[in-house]
């Protein structure tokens, strides 16, 4: 009898374990983990209360809700974003993620949803007025960002004295204000935001380095998720939800349809 009871208890424990695993899987399947750079205003950043906010945060939340799923935003080291995606630790890369040919070899992309450009920011009193003036200067960029790609593709790269890489744009702009770098190559949507918050600190060169477009990165082979997400994006673009979010953050409808 004692042996029988022991067997019953063992079977019950196994069934409970399996039930727990099943519940966990269902929960994971119902939640999309989105990898972000939480210092990339106004697309994804932390407000004064340390809450993650921004255009991409609202846009992603609306799209995931349209899919009937839940969303979790996971701040990541932007230098390892593709590794985070391929390992399965995140489901999507979504925070000012520029579409490039190199990245197309690593991830699947949605259709572009925002236009952007890599521009050159300098202190407002700087004598640098054109790209050629960067010769012999120290230039800052966010490490492993499309700013580096844009710089590498421009002839001025060979004339620059030093290229300093930063973990994020906030640190790059901090060093620019402190005079530790002469210029920063940065996303136009990002520097526009900081210039609106810190009037009189920076100015932009008239010449931009490269036009570009943002998309959402999906793991290679996960075509079903890509299709489901794109359908949701098309729906919130069509019903006016995306336009309202854009008006909130940019004061106009910038979303590509």
TrEMBL record:
SMART domains: PBPb, PBPe. It is found in: Cell membrane. Keywords: Lipoprotein, Palmitate, Signal. Residues 31-252 form the Ionotropic glutamate receptor C-terminal domain. Residues 1-19 form the signal peptide. It holds the Pfam family SBP_bac_3. The keyword Membrane does not apply. It is a lipid-anchor. Residues 31-253 form the Solute-binding protein family 3/N-terminal domain. The keyword Signal applies. This is Amino acid ABC transporter substrate-binding protein. The lineage of its organism: Bacteria, Bacillati, Bacillota, Bacilli, Bacillales.
């Amino acid at each position: 009898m004692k042996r029988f009871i022991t067997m019953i208890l063992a079977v019950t424990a196994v069934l409970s374990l399996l039930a727990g695993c099943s519940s966990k899987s269902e929960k994971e399947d119902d939640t999309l983990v989105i990898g972000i750079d939480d210092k990339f205003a106004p697309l994804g950043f932390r407000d004064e209360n340390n809450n993650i906010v921004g255009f991409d945060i609202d846009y992603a939340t609306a799209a995931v809700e349209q899919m009937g799923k839940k969303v979790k935003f996971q701040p990541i080291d932007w230098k390892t974003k593709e590794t985070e995606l391929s390992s399965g630790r995140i489901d999507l890369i979504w925070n000012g993620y520029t579409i490039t040919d190199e990245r197309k070899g690593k991830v699947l992309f949605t259709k572009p949803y925002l236009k952007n450009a890599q521009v050159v920011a300098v202190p407002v009193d700087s004598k640098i007025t054109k790209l050629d003036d960067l010769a012999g200067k120290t230039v800052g960029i966010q490490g492993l960002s499309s700013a580096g790609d844009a710089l590498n593709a421009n002839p001025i790269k060979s004339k620059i004295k030093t290229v300093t890489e930063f973990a994020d744009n906030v640190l790059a702009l901090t060093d620019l204000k402190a005079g530790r770098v002469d210029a920063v190559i940065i996303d136009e949507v990002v520097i526009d935001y900081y210039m609106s918050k810190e009037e009189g600190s920076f100015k932009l060169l008239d010449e931009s380095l490269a036009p570009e477009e943002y998309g959402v990165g999906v793991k290679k082979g996960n075509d079903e998720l890509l299709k489901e997400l794109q359908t949701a994006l098309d729906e919130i673009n069509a019903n006016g939800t995306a336009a309202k979010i854009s008006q909130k953050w940019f004061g106009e409808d910038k979303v590509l349809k």
